[in-house]
Structure formats: C-alpha cells, structure tokens
Amino acid sequence: MNVAILTGGGDCPGLNAVIRAIVRKGIGDYGWELTGIRMGWRGLLEKDTCPLDLEAVSGILPVGGTILGTSRTNPSKIEGGPETAVKNFAELGIDGLIAIGGDDTLGVAKRLYDEQGVHVVGVPKTIDNDLSGTDYTFGFDTAVSIATDAIDRLHTTAASHHRVMVVEVMGRHAGWIALMSGLAGGADVILLPEFPMTVEDVCDLIESRAARGKPFSVVCVSEGAKILWRSGEQKEVVASAEVDAFGHVRLGGVGSFLAREIKRVTGREVRETTLGYIQRGGTPTAHDRILGTRFGVKAAEMVAAGEWGMMAGLKGDEIVSVPLAEAVSTWKLVPQDMWELAQVFFG
Ligand code: F6P
Questions:
Q1: Ligand 1 pocket, residue 20 CB under 6 Å
Q2: Which DSSP symbol is given to 327?
Q3: Is the CB of 125 under 6 A from ligand 1?
Q4: For residues 17 and 25, is the Cβ–Cβ distance under 8 A?
C-alpha cells in the first residue's frame, strides 16, 4: 500500500512528530511505502512528492516546523483544482492520504472525500486549539508555554517600571492561547474574541490594581479580539485586509491599538509586545511530541482499517476516530465557565 502524507495551513510544533509516527508505524507494522506531499495541497496539484523512509524521519521528533513544507493552497479556489487533485492521487499510485492540518486543510480533505471519494484520514493541527472533534490539538501546548514564558518576563519589567504591558498572542477565532497563557502567567486582564470587553472596563481594572498598591499591569490580548467602547462603538484591527485562499484576513495590531487606547484613557505609561510567529516556531514541548505521536500512530491504524473521511481526535485521554464533518462543523470556542474562571483573577 502507498500512503501519502501532507501538512497544510500554518506550521505548528509537533508536525514532524506526527510524520515520524505515521512512517514508523506504517513501515514497521504494515510494510507500507510512504510518500510525502510537499507544500500542502499545492504539492498534490503539482505532483511535488518525496519518498518517506525511516532515514527521512530520523532525528525529526524535536524539530519544529514540517519537513514536508506547508502552504495555504485551497484546491477549490483553483480552476479544476479538485479534479486535478483526484487525477494526481491516482497517477501517483496513492492508496490513502493522511492530511495533517486545521479547519481549512481538513475542510478540503472532507470535500475531497465527500465529493470525489478520495481515501483520506485527518490529523488535527493548530496552535489555536479551535478545532472541534478533539479536546486538544498538538502545537497548542507549545504556543501556550512560549506565551506564558513571555508573560512571566513582561511581568518583571512591568513591575520595575510601573508600566502597563500589553501582550498580543495568536488566536484568530478562539482565545484559547490568550486564556491559558494569561491564566498560567497571571495576566491582570485577558481579552478574547469570544467575550468582548470595553476599553473603559480594561482601564478600570488597571486603576483598581493601582489603587491597591500595584502600579503595573499585564494585559494579554488575543489577535482576534475586537476593540469595544462603552459607547457601543467597535473596531476589528487587522494587519492587512487582503484575504488568503480560505478567505482569512491577516490579523495583528490589536495589541498596539489597545495599548494606545489604555494610554489615552489612563495617562499611564504603556508598552506593547506582539509575540506573533515566535509562538509557532521552534521545538515542541514533550506534551505536543507525545500527542502528535499518538495522533500519527492512530492515523496509520485508521488507514489500515479503511476509516476514510475520519480524523484522529483526543477525547479525555483516549485517541479516537471522529468524522471529519464533526471537526470542521463549528469552531471550538472558549466556554462561559472558563471565561468566568479567568475573570476571578482580573484586576
Ligand atoms: O491558524 C494559526 C495561526 O497561527 C493563527 O493564529 C494566525 O492568525 C494565522 O495562523 C496566521 O496565518 P499566516 O501564517 O498565514 O500568517
């Protein structure tokens, strides 16, 4: 059997752990031939492939990024794209494909399965942790660890200068990274896309801290959070209004905007830090290496069992098969009870 692997969407710590696990399980237990598809769905459209043998995956477990490369190519946005993908799948002699990605990549996988009958299995990847069908995605733990470390560092400089430090973290639709790193790092205010807060409420929390002898604050904001004022006015800050092949604008800049607003309202000294791609790069945590490894082995087992149109997911401490349809149906957003937990520590 010839099994192909592709990684799509934003890169993410732990991708190589998944690739290695599939190859080790596939060769060791099933005697498969494995083919790497380079640069996400673009590689399938261009027949850009490489063999994946034991040597190819040796030493990659702790390495960030993806040895296969990745892209945000969407075959559905290319004239004849889905048909070319199906044709190339057959011409390359591929029997099954494991697509490792977030909602965009897995959305393409689902369509190819539903509409063209392509033999595909999914693995959930995203630092944002916003995919349904799994309790956690790999890469998230690494991003939270990096952001927590940054918040710890910003705390000491905030305290030394009596400043307000605004830190912007990733999280397009869901504020999981801001929530978890803010909780772990003891941020004084956390802003999420799911639960908009007004600028005035943020400033009141900063002032109430100052009134009890804490003339410094750390504010953690998700890149997807909207700016809101008590007047009811709202603003979405974007780095570029240009959209990618999946219709997403490039986010970034909400931290700077919020910092300016806090300075305007409170008159305090405010600084901002945007963590950006630092959260996605570098070596995965032990947790993400293990989760990626478990997902990879499960995906190989699912291919062996012919569980097409399904995705490996984490439910509790079990790795299970869930329909791709479930994974891409809705965003997994921060629930009300977690928001209430975070608010206990505000101000
Ligand atoms: O989906 C993961 C993510 O890192 C988001 O948090 C972020 O908005 C987006 O990818 C950035 O995408 P790109 O790599 O295309 O700039």
A1: no
A2: H
A3: no
A4: no
User: Is 248:170 a contact under the CB 8 Å cutoff?
Assistant: no
> Is residue 280 in contact with ligand 1, taking CB distance under 6 Å?
yes
Across the chain, which distance is largest between two alpha carbons, in Å? 70
- Which atom of ligand 1 lies nearest, measured to the CA of 244? 15
Q: Rg of the chain's alpha carbons, rounded to an integer?
A: 22
- Would you state the pLDDT for residue 190? 98
Most ligand 1 atoms within 8 A of CB, residue of 128, 146, 278 to mutate? 128
Q: What is the distance between the alpha carbons of residues 27 and 4, in angstroms, rounded to a whole number?
A: 13
| Alpha-helix residue ranges (DSSP H) falling in the chain | 15-30, 41-46, 81-91, 103-116, 140-161, 176-185, 199-211, 254-266, 286-304, 324-327, 336-343
* Burial 104-142, CB ≥16 within 10 A → b, else e: bbbbbbbbbbeeeebbbbbbbbbbbbbbbbbebbbbbbb
Distance between CA atoms of residues 70 and 297, nearest Å: 21
The beta strand positions in 252-331, using DSSP E, are: 270-274, 310-315, 318-323
Q: How far apart are CA 105 and CA 73, in angstroms?
A: 9
Q: How far is the CA of 193 from the centre of ligand 1 (A)?
A: 15
**Structure confidence by residue, pLDDT tens digits, 138-192:** 999 999 999 999 999 999 999 999 999 999 999 999 999 999 999 999 999 999 9
Atom of ligand 1 nearest to the CA of 72: 15
- Is ligand 1 within 6 A of the CB of residue 172? yes
